[in-house]
User: Fold Tectonic family member 3 from Mus spicilegus.
Amino acid sequence: MCTLQLHLLLLVDLMLSETARPQPSSTARALPTSWGLEPVTPEVPTSAPPDSSESPNPWTLSMPVNATTDPFPALPICVCDLTPGTCDLNCCCDKDCDLLHPRTVFSFCLPGSVRSSSWVCVDNSLMFRSNSPFPSRIFTDSSGTTQFCVGVNNSKANYFQKLQTVNATNFQALAAEFGGQSFPSTPPETQPPVLFYRAGDPILTYYPSWSVVSLLRQPVAVGAGGLCAESNPAGFLESKSTTCPRFFRDLASSCTSEPALDAASYYNFRVLKVPRGMTDLQNMKFQVPVTLASQASPPLLAGNTCQNIVSQVVYEIETNGIFGIQKVSVSFRQTNLTVKPGVSLQQDFIVHFRAFQQSKAAAPAAPRSGNPGYLTGKPLLVLTGDTSHSMTLLQSEGNGLCSAKRHAVQFGVNAVSGCQLRPREVNCSHLQEEVYQTLHGRPRPEHIAIFGNADPAQRGGWTRILSRDCSVSAVNCTSCCLIPVSLEIQVLWAHLGLQSNPQAHVAGARFLYQCKSVQEHQRGIEVSLTTLVNFVDITQKPEPPRDQPRIDWKLPFDFFFPFKAALSRGASVQKDCLVLILCVLLLGLLNSQTK
Assistant:
C-alpha cells in the first residue's frame, strides 16, 4: 500500500510541475539572463536622467563582446554644419572638424550635434554585474547617490513628423489658425578668457604711443534715439554688422576734432593675438598690426563742407584656433557732409572673421541658415532668378528718410520698420515701380528657401512667394495714382522630423500690400512706408507612439487548474482523471487514519 501511495504522489507532482510553469504572452520581450550568481534588478526610471551628451567617465562599464548595438551611432544630419569646408565652432558632428573626441576641444556641443538618448537608472548598490547589450554608465548626482544607468531605445525620440502642404487655398486658414508672435531672449553671458580667446570674448588692443591696453570697439545703436554707443566691444569669432547715427550741433568744430570721423582712429593700435600677450606688452610676437585695405584721407573742412569723414568701417580678422588672431585689415568708405545745424551721419561698422590662410582665389560658399532646418535668427533665404540672397526690410537714416541699406530678415523673428520716401518720379507708373522696389528691395524676391541649406541650382528646394498687389479698380479718381504704402511679409513655417531634434522649414510665404491714392504729377511729396514680417508656426504635432511592450506572465489561479486543463483536452481522458482524483482522496483518508 505504501508503494501505491508513493507512485500516486509522484504522478501528481509531475502533473503539477508541468502545468504550473509560467506562460509568456505573444508580445513579451526576451530579457537578458545570466547563469552567474547575481541579483536580478528591475528597471526603474530615474527622476533626473543623465545628460545624453555627457562623455564617458572612468567608471563606465564595458559592453559585452557579442553586443552588436553601436553605443554612439553617427547622426544622419548635422544641423550646425553651416559653413561648407570649415569647422563650425562647438559643432560636434561637423565632419570638417575631423575630431575623434570633439568634447576635448569644444567647451560644449551645440543642440542637435549629438544623438539624443534615454536612460533607465537604479541604485548602483543593487547591481552586481551588467550583461545589457546597451551602453551603461555610473553617475553620481548632487546628493552623492550613485546610480547605475542603461541607455535604451526611445521610440518618441525617433518618431518622424510629416510634411504639410501649403498652397493659395489653405494659406489664409493656416495663418489664422496658428498665428502668433514671438521675440528672442537675451544672449547668454560669456566667460572671461585666460590663455586664449573663446567665442564671444572681447578682443584686446594695445596703443604703443600711450602704453594703454583697450578693447576693439564696434559701436552699436542704443536707446530710443538709436545713438551710437562707443563702449560696445567686438566679440571674438562673432561676425556681425551694426549701424547707428551721429548728430552734430556744430559740425564745423567737430569735423577735424571728432575721433569717430577720422579714419586714423580705427587703425592706430595693435591687436593682441591671445590674451596672455598682456603679460609682456613689449613682446611683438603677441601683437598684430592693423593694415589698411583701402586708401583713407584725414578729415578736411573746406568752406561749408566737411570732407573725408568715415561712413563705413570694415574689419577683416583672420584667426587660427587657439593660436589666436593672425591678421587684421581695415577698409573705409568716406563721404562729404554739408555743415549745417543738427546735421546727422549714419555710420556702419562691420567685423568679419575667417580662417587663417583661407584661399581667396575661389569664391567662398554662401553660409547656410541651417542644415537642413532653419535656425532662429539666421537670414531668411530668397531666390531671384538664379541668385540667392537674403530677404530684407526697410531701413531709415538718421533723418528718417529711406536708406539704401536694408535690415536682413531673421528667421523666426517678427520685425517692423519704416521710413520716409521722397519719390524722384512723378509719372504714376514710374512712381508705382519706385515704391514697390523700395518696399521689397532690389532685386525683388521670387522664391523662398524651404530649408536653410537650400541650393540655388536645385529648384525643388524653393517655393514661389505668393503676392497680392494693389487693385487699380478701387480708385475712382482719374488724376490719382494708387501706390503701396505698407508691405506685410507672412511666412508660414513648421517643424518636421524627429521630435527630439525637429527641423524648421518654410511651408509658404506671401506679400500683402496696403495702398493709398496720391495726386499724380505732384512734386515734393513724402510717402511714409512700412514693412513688417510675421512668422506663423503651423506645426501639427502627431499622436505620440505607444510605449515599449511589457512582460505579461500568465500563471494558474487555483489548485485544480491542471485537472481542468486535462479535462478540456477531450472525453478520452476523463475516466483516467476521475480515477486519479479518487486515488488522491483515498490517499488522504489513509494518511488521516494512520496518524
About this structure: The CA atoms of residues 391 and 409 lie 6 Å apart. The two ends are 16 Å apart (CA to CA). The chain is about 10% helix and 30% strand.
